[in-house]
Amino acid sequence: MKKLLAALLLAPTAALAHTGHGGGAPLVAGLSHPMGGADHLLAMLAVGLWAAGIGGRAIWALPLAFVAAMVAGGALGAAGVGLPLVEPVILASSIVIGAAIALALRPGLAMVLPVIAVFGMMHGHAHGIEGPAQGLAAYAAGFALATAGLHGIGIALGRLPLARWLGAATAAAGLALAVA
């Protein structure tokens, strides 16, 4: 019994890192998918944190760029179009954005938006590949709504005095995921 328990505790869990693979309503699967993987969750909260830290138009522009690019990437993934370096870029997103928050970097939107869009595209591609064959539009709507909600939570957290610490923790967690 002890050997079985040890084997279960030490078994790899990467295949279970994201929800939304099985049956169920596509909208519900889409809503839950971003919550199921720490790599997605961290980056999506970090986009909101950074948007709040930059302020002004960035508060709506960063989340909008991320979600729009994510939906486009999801369509590419669902269509079977491959993109290079998807997983490394997804992991890099929480590290890069978290570090930018921790360092209180506030570059102009012309510099930030393309970076955010690339990150969104890669996250979306992963969602699209893992999405259901039936009900893809509802699934995409679900993961877009969940992502926007996570950005909103990030924006709210970004207004707290501890936002830079949250950025540092995000970068550290992303780094831990990258080396795990």
Automatic annotation (TrEMBL):
It comes from Paracoccus versutus (Thiobacillus versutus). This is Urease accessory protein. It comes from the Bacteria. Keywords: Membrane, Signal, Transmembrane, Transmembrane helix. Residues 1-17 form the signal peptide. The chain crosses the membrane at residues 41-59, 64-83, 89-116, 136-156. It holds the Pfam family HupE_UreJ.
